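STRUCTURE:
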C-alpha cells in the first residue's frame, strides 16, 4: 500500500505499518524545509500566523519545533480567523 496523501507524523511513528510505503512528506518534513529555506534567506525572526483548524495547529507546532532546530525565533504569533461575513457556506 502507498500513503500518497496523508501528512500525519503519527503514521510514520506510533501508527506505522510494515506494508505501507510513504510518498507524501510529513508535516515536520514540510516545516523543516520551510525553516531551512527561511534561515538560508537570513530571515531568522518569524511571525507565525496559524488558523483555528486542527491541521493548522499541528503545522504551527511543527514550525515551532523547526524554528528551534534551525536557529530561528518566532517573535510573534497570531491567529487567523475568517470573518463570518466572508466565510464560505458549508455544503453537506
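SEQUENCE:
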Amino acid at each position: 500500500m502507498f500513503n500518497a496523501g496523508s501528512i500525519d507524523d503519527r503514521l510514520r511513528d506510533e501508527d506505522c505499518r510494515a506494508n505501507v510505503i510513504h510518498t507524501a512528506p510529513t508535516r515536520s518534513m514540510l516545516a523543516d524545509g520551510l525553516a531551512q529555506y527561511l534561515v538560508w534567506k537570513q530571515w531568522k525572526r518569524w511571525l507565525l500566523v496559524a488558523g483555528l483548524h486542527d491541521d493548522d495547529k499541528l503545522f504551527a507546532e511543527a514550525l515551532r519545533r523547526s524554528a528551534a532546530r534551525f536557529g530561528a525565533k518566532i517573535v510573534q504569533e497570531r491567529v487567523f480567523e475568517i470573518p463570518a461575513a466572508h466565510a464560505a457556506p458549508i455544503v453537506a
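REMARK: Residues 80 and 86 are 13 Å apart (CA to CA).
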